[in-house]
Amino acid sequence: AICKPEGCLNGGECIFPGHCSCRHGFSGLRCGDVECSISCNHGDCYGDRCDCRYGWEGDNCSEALCVPPCQNGGFCVLPNLCSCVPPYAGFRCEISETSQR
Question: Is residue 100 predicted with pLDDT exceeding 60?
Fold first, then answer.
């Protein structure tokens, strides 16, 4: 069979005109799309790694990034959004609610 104009990519095999049978790890009409071996929550997968979107980090882009970081035991739940533990509040958990009384 003939797969025109450029043929199959990444070792794919032409099974009938215009359609390729792709090797493991590739997909698409011409086998040009790399399938992901991991799940990227907030990013794009390129083979075996994630390219995280702005504000996300970690192997699978599941860890929110707060800059500057959360303070006083608070933790980053979304990009630049801290969840504070009592008695702290504020954008970075920098305000002690007990000191304002």
Answer: no
